[in-house]
Design a protein that fits this description.
By secondary structure, this protein is α+β, with helices and mostly antiparallel strands. Helix content is 16%, strand content 42%. It is built from 3 helices and 10 strands, in the order H-E-H-E-E-E-E-E-E-E-E-H-E. The protein has an 8-stranded antiparallel β-barrel. A hairpin with a 5-residue loop joins strand 4 and strand 5. The protein is globular and about 40 Å long. This is Apolipoprotein D. Residues 35-180 form the Lipocalin/cytosolic fatty-acid binding domain.
């Protein structure tokens, strides 16, 4: 039970958009020769997994900056769709194993455990496809996915390519919901 609570806390630490599923996590491969330096800077959220409740934010972006201790400071910002209130969340990202640099860890609240942030595919200059899955005792799992881009939109061909990569790992792309980046 304690384990389950930790797992759930980790899910909430990562995102409010996790999706629950049956069985364990799918086997995925992540970006080869990941270069963190090239990954830093600003990314706009183009798609993310649906939340269980109404998605209420638009113009979501993330800014990644290297800290002196080698961790990354992430500044996530968005704007409320209903009343235009801006929101900011500051998080911490790090790479636990430098030989597997595309498997990052992230958390937003200082008391929360870290959750997975795996870069499945990025070209650094246009898109990144991020996936996180945590197995719950091998009988269930929760997962989330993000597609971020250097601009507020991506060409359909790029989206199709990233959806195909996701489907190739047997991850259900119907969870992806487009993020409103209009009138930002
Ligand atoms: C990572 O990218 C930076 C910036 O382009 C480059 O200077 C550096 O050599 C790259 N690192 C590796 C290990 O390729
Ligand atoms: C986060 O980013 C936003 C948008 O760039 C900026 O206005 C805000 O000052 C940043 N917040 C922090 C705490 O760095
Ligand atoms: C990013 O997209 C542009 C426009 O399609 C393309 O010219 C460029 O080569 C892409 N960058 C990388 C690193 O693939």
């Amino acid at each position: 039970m304690v384990y389950l609570l930790c797992v759930l806390a980790a899910a909430l630490a990562v995102s409010n958009a996790q999706v629950f599923g049956g069985l364990g996590c799918p086997t995925v491969t992540t970006q080869k020769n990941f270069n963190l330096t090239r990954y830093l800077g600003t990314w706009y959220e183009v798609y993310k997994f649906k939340a269980n409740f109404e998605n209420n934010e638009k113009c979501i972006q993330a800014n990644y900056q290297l800290k002196p201790d080698g961790h990354i400071r992430v500044n996530n910002t968005g704007v409320s769709i209903t009343d235009s209130t801006p929101s900011t969340a500051i998080g911490d990202i790090y790479i636990p194993d430098m030989t597997d640099g595309s498997k990052l860890k992230v958390k937003f609240a200082s008391a929360a455990p870290y959750g997975n942030y795996w870069v499945l595919s990025t070209d650094y200059e246009n898109y990144t496809l991020i996936y996180s899955c945590t197995s719950i005792l091998g009988i269930s799992h929760f997962e989330f996915g993000w597609i971020l881009a250097r601009q507020r939109t991506l060409p359909d061909a790029t989206i199709n390519k990233l959806f195909a990569i996701t489907q190739g790992f047997k991850i259900d792309t119907s969870h992806f919901m487009k993020t409103d980046q209009s009138n930002c």
